[in-house]
Amino acid sequence: MGKNYDNWERLVKAVSRREEDKLLALTHSVSTSPFDRKDWKVMLPPGKRQVVWRSSYMSFSLDERTEKNCFLLGAMNLIMSSRGFGGCWKLNTHPQSRFTEVVEFEKSQGIYIEGNIKTKLLSSESCYTAYLVFGFAEMYANLNSAVSIVRNFYNESGIGYPEEQAKMVKFQEGNDRDDGWMEIQLGEFYVDEGGNGEVQVQLLDTSGYIKSGLILEGIEFRPF
Questions:
Q1: What is the pTM of this model?
Q2: Of the candidates 31, 54, 113, 192, which lies 20 to 30 Å from 84 by C-alpha distance?
Q3: Between 19-28 and 8-17, two packed helices, what is the crossing angle to 10 degrees?
Q4: Separation CA 184–CA 133 (nearest Å)
Q5: Domain ranges of the chain
Q6: Which of 99, 107, 125 minimizes the C-alpha distance to 218?
Q7: How many Cβ atoms sit within 10 Å of the Cβ of residue 224?
Q8: Which residues contact 206 (CB under 8 A, 6 or more apart)?
Q9: DSSP states along the chain
Q10: Each residue of 159-175: pLDDT tens digit?
């Protein structure tokens, strides 16, 4: 901890400055269990970012380079569906996960993943990238490509014409992370000063091939 904070006073100030962000994030978390205050301890994971707090389904950290807000929405904080066989995804534990549960997609003809975050949780006047954080099971099949869509709504209602960015992503071209997972870029967006909107991120694979073995840790929003 001393490597990142000179003393306890500096740590308290850093946490206090983001008390409002913490409360807002917990309001939108789907976790029904109370937040454990022992999680306020500053932990140093293998990654390069300082974890300030985490709940069962969400992690908030400070980017080491910019000191701006980072959020990782855990798999159970996302909207997911699959089509094909019944029971196409299951909950599981994973030794490298920061959350209590991850999602593993099994036999499925299609995958749909959606994550949403309020822009007031992020740092204003900043450019962000959304990343899919994932891994492969020992046995996986037909995890090739998918379409990602990032929509930036400038009001909380989600009504109107958002800025939209779509791209093709390939699972096999994911980059290794220091925390043991992989990541692929889903898209970029900008947070205005005093932004009070919402960003929606979608990942869609409707190739029709039977696919399995995708392990989902979550979607991360990180400044660049």
A1: 0.75
A2: 31
A3: 50
A4: 7
A5: 8-223
A6: 99
A7: 12
A8: 110
A9: -TTT-SSHHHHHHHHHHTHHHHHHHHHH----SPPPGGGGS-B--SSSSEEEEE-SSEEEEE-TTT--EEEEEEGGGSEEEEESSSS-EEEE--TT-SSS-EEEE-SBSEEEEEEEEEGGGSPSSEEEEEEEEEEEEEEEE---EEEEEEEEESSTT--S--EEEEEEEEGGGPEE-TTS-EEEEEEEEEEPTT---EEEEEEEE---S-BEEEEEEEEEEEE-
A10: 556 789 999 999 999 99
Q: Choose the CATH number for 8-223 among 2.60.120.260, 1.10.10.10, 3.40.1110.10, 2.60.120.10.
A: 2.60.120.260
The residue type found at 217 is E
Rounded alpha-carbon distances, angstroms, from residue 195 to 73, 122, 124, 148, 187: 20, 9, 7, 23, 19
Contact residues for 62 (Cβ-Cβ < 8 A; gap 6+): 14, 18, 49, 50, 52, 68, 69, 70
First to last CA, the chain: 24
The confidence score (pLDDT) of residue 221 equals: 97
How many CB atoms lie under 10 A from the CB of residue 79? 11
Q: Which residues of the chain have pLDDT under 70?
A: 1-56, 82-87, 155-161
Cα–Cα nearest to 50, from 103, 96, 5, 110: 5
